[in-house]
Specification:
Elements: E1 2-6, E2 9-17, H1 21-28, H2 46-72, H3 77-106, E3 107-115, E4 119-123, H4 128-135, H5 139-163, H6 165-189
Antiparallel strand pairs: 1-4, 2-3
Helix pairs in contact: 2-3
Length: 195
């Protein structure tokens, strides 16, 4: 038996149109089994938006004043370009900030932290070695399989030798010829005792 302990958790961030925030929260309420904490904060960013719009308008008027002043004064071209670049950077930053605040006004951000209490899973695992031993063939079956494999091996040897019969025939003829040659040679070299 194997015991496994685990805890489920997750974090979800939702971006919901501001007008739909309350209806989403009401729709989520029946799905919650137990609520540890609920923290709902509303931040009015209208003043920040107005501040960014005023900063953007101020930067635009400064840009016009700089371009009028830059052409009227005898400042170097490099100083004028640097001043215009700095002013453009401030305008871009103000535009980005105003877009971010407009996004905060248009959408609400809801962060959900979900978790489940610690769980324990029980599972039974059978002993694999025992299962393999039970599935293994018995001694008699193994002997029978070995005899069958040996018989098939002997048949294969006989078949292989049958492919070699012409070589065996030639070897037999050479051996027979050699014996006859030796016997004639021995009889020709040996003295005749009968005389």
């Amino acid at each position: 038996m194997r015991l496994t302990e685990y805890t489920l958790s997750g974090n979800i961030t939702l971006r919901v149109p501001s007008a739909e925030t309350q209806s989403l929260l009401h729709a989520l309420a029946p799905l919650v089994l137990f609520l540890d904490e609920r923290d709902f904060t509303a931040q009015d960013v209208a003043l920040e938006l107005l501040q960014q719009q005023l900063a953007q308008a101020r930067n635009q008027s400064s840009a016009q004043a700089l371009s009028n002043t830059a052409s009227a004064t005898a400042a170097s071209a490099t100083e004028r370009i640097l001043a215009q670049n700095q002013l453009q950077a401030r305008q871009d930053e103000a535009l980005i900030q105003s877009k971010l605040i407009a996004d905060q006004v248009a959408f609400s951000t809801i962060r959900l932290n979900l978790y489940q209490d610690r769980q324990i899973s029980r599972s039974e695992h059978e002993d694999i070695a025992t299962e393999l031993a039970a599935a293994e063939p018995s001694f008699g079956e193994r002997i029978l399989a070995a005899l069958q494999a040996g018989w098939k091996g002997a048949q294969e040897v006989i078949i292989a030798l049958s492919y070699l019969w012409p070589l065996l025939l030639i070897a037999a003829m050479i051996s027979l010829g050699w014996r006859q040659y030796r016997s004639k040679r021995i009889s020709a070299n040996s003295p005749d005792i009968s005389e």
